[in-house]
Amino acid sequence: MNYRKDTDVYKLYLVTDSGMLPEGTTLFSQVEKAVKAGITLVQIREKDSDTKDFIAEALEVKKLCNEYKVPLIINDRIDVALAIGADGVHVGQDDMPIPMVRDLVGPDMIIGWSVGKTSEVQQLAEWGPDYVDYIGIGTLFPTETKKNSKKVPMGPQGAIRILDALQEYKADWCRTVGIGGLHAPNIPRVLYQCTSSDGKRALDGISLVSDIMASPTADVATKRLLEFLDDTTYSYLGDLNLQSNDEPTSHDFHDVLAQVAKNRPLVQHVTNKVHQNFGANVTLALGASPIMSEIESEVGELCRIPNAALLLNTGSVAPLSMLKTAVAAYNEVTRPIVFDPVGYSATTTRRDLNDALLSYGQYACIKGNSGEILGLAGLNSSSMKGVDATSTASDAELIQSATRIVAYRYKTIAVCTGETDYICDGTVGGRRFISTGSGIGPDDLDMYYVQDGHIPMMGDITASGCSLGSTIASLVGGLGPDGSVFNAVVAAIVLYKSAGRLAADGCDGSGSFHVRLIDNLYKLTRVNNPDTWSAVLKKIDDSE
Ligand SMILES: Nc1ncnc2c1ncn2[C@@H]1O[C@H](COP(=O)(O)OP(=O)(O)O)[C@@H](O)[C@H]1O
Ligand SMILES: Cc1ncsc1CCOP(=O)(O)O
Ligand SMILES: [Mg+2]
């Protein structure tokens, strides 16, 4: 059977490894369970087997695959593939050159190629559709399967670059699978994030090893993974509802504050020295409980405290290893992270560190001033002076585009602060999509803004943006299981700006403004009557 033209065989791609089999199982028995449970493609990858054993095993699996009409791919060993009549081969960058492989296997076999660089995409495009049929994009995350691999994990952002290159070089025939360190907890996020910037390309599938090969119930594991792949919308925060409903109202804001009072969320701050004290007092004023901690060994405990949330503020950076540990811990327990990439494009050090974190995890909300958001969107690198936005970053259209791009690229709720705060929730009509591939692009995303006139003093104090981060993390962290993250983010922004307005009126200096801002957050929270808040939320209706 010639599977070369089948595009849906890549959906759930099992790669074997006989080095991790549970007691009482064999490679064949694990593959058999997976195939019967719906695996769509099998690759035998046995780097250490003798040729004789490899061929015997491959023939047995080939028979099974023929029965269930599942293509069988052989890794690297072209000779074995030819000997058993496999449906295809997969080669890495250091294996036999692709043109030679195609000459040997002929026109009917699938050829897969491991790809990690855009130059490799350019090469396959130059060869054209008669050579490479699919690429394995990775290594996405650190993996046990390829021990001492020299490859640095590329993360979802690396995969997006490869998907963009496929678009750029018009390799439309080439299918894609994500590879490397993929497991149930991170697969939905990878599917959700890995979409080309134009929205037209997504991963065609996921390849994995240990989630099935090391599973004592390989069939159950396979079925659960297929559920992820068949889903169309996605909320990575466990029970928290990431779908933004209709435009939030003051009633929703009241509910959000009531949940903070009830649940008293723990807000772990990994933040800069300037913000520490002010952020802790803002958090307390809101009725939440701050802990300012960069202790790597306690992150695993803190994230499991009920209603925990993490504010990750990279103003004066903690070691990257600690930051990554924190991100992985909160992602693992699906608790929200608010990310504030302070001074993002001010220096390469800050840019590199924040890019590494953005490639590594998933964030409930990414907030920043216009300099930071424009930088994240790649629209204007000269828009920062230290940690403050410069005046060049004041074009509303540009800021809205940047906010939409950040929401789209990182699949998050993006907030760009300033006199007007712009909020893009990454949804289209309130829904989020896994691996769209349907042409939905940043410009299609819903967009909101919050205003309360010009409050100069809000820009005259330091850590005002950082403390908006504390406010967002407190309100998101307080949500109950059916809470809307979007409503909490918007409530935080409306509350914070309204408190700023009250603090500024009649205030004679930036010193007392700090204190008055905390006072008014304290008062507004306890009164909890959003109808009296002065700041106004509006939705941008693009038809206007
Ligand atoms: N001129 C302004 N008028 C009203 N609100 C402002 C103004 N400048 C900043 N803000 C508010 O102050 C907070 C900090 O925003 P910003 O100064 O942009 O952040 P950062 O301190 O990170 O640069 C946000 O809540 C924002 O809405
Ligand atoms: C001054 C300074 N330097 C490093 S972080 C920081 C505080 C920035 O706070 P904000 O982003 O709220 O202005
Ligand atoms: Mg800031």
Automatic annotation (TrEMBL):
GO terms for cellular component: cytoplasm. It catalyses: 2-[(2R,5Z)-2-carboxy-4-methylthiazol-5(2H)-ylidene]ethyl phosphate + 4-amino-2-methyl-5-(diphosphooxymethyl)pyrimidine + 2 H(+) = thiamine phosphate + CO2 + diphosphate; 4-methyl-5-(2-phosphooxyethyl)-thiazole + 4-amino-2-methyl-5-(diphosphooxymethyl)pyrimidine + H(+) = thiamine phosphate + diphosphate; 2-(2-carboxy-4-methylthiazol-5-yl)ethyl phosphate + 4-amino-2-methyl-5-(diphosphooxymethyl)pyrimidine + 2 H(+) = thiamine phosphate + CO2 + diphosphate; 5-(2-hydroxyethyl)-4-methylthiazole + ATP = 4-methyl-5-(2-phosphooxyethyl)-thiazole + ADP + H(+). Residues 12-212 form the Thiamine phosphate synthase/TenI domain. Keywords: ATP-binding, Kinase, Magnesium, Metal-binding, Nucleotide-binding, Thiamine biosynthesis, Transferase. GO terms for biological process: thiamine biosynthetic process. InterPro entries: Aldolase_TIM, Hyethyz_kinase, Ribokinase-like, ThiamineP_synth_sf, ThiamineP_synth_TenI, TMP_synthase. Its cofactor is Mg(2+). Pathway: Cofactor biosynthesis; thiamine diphosphate biosynthesis; 4-methyl-5-(2-phosphoethyl)-thiazole from 5-(2-hydroxyethyl)-4-methylthiazole: step 1/1; Cofactor biosynthesis; thiamine diphosphate biosynthesis; thiamine phosphate from 4-amino-2-methyl-5-diphosphomethylpyrimidine and 4-methyl-5-(2-phosphoethyl)-thiazole: step 1/1. The keyword Kinase applies. Pfam families: HK, TMP-TENI. One of its GO terms (molecular function) is ATP binding. Signal peptide: none annotated. PANTHER family: THIAMINE BIOSYNTHETIC BIFUNCTIONAL ENZYME, THIAMINE-PHOSPHATE PYROPHOSPHORYLASE. In the C-terminal section; belongs to the Thz kinase family. In the N-terminal section; belongs to the thiamine-phosphate synthase family. NCBIfam families: thiE (TIGR00693), thiM (TIGR00694). Condenses 4-methyl-5-(beta-hydroxyethyl)thiazole monophosphate (THZ-P) and 2-methyl-4-amino-5-hydroxymethyl pyrimidine pyrophosphate (HMP-PP) to form thiamine monophosphate (TMP). This is Bifunctional hydroxyethylthiazole kinase/thiamine-phosphate diphosphorylase. The lineage of its organism: Eukaryota, Fungi, Dikarya, Ascomycota, Saccharomycotina.
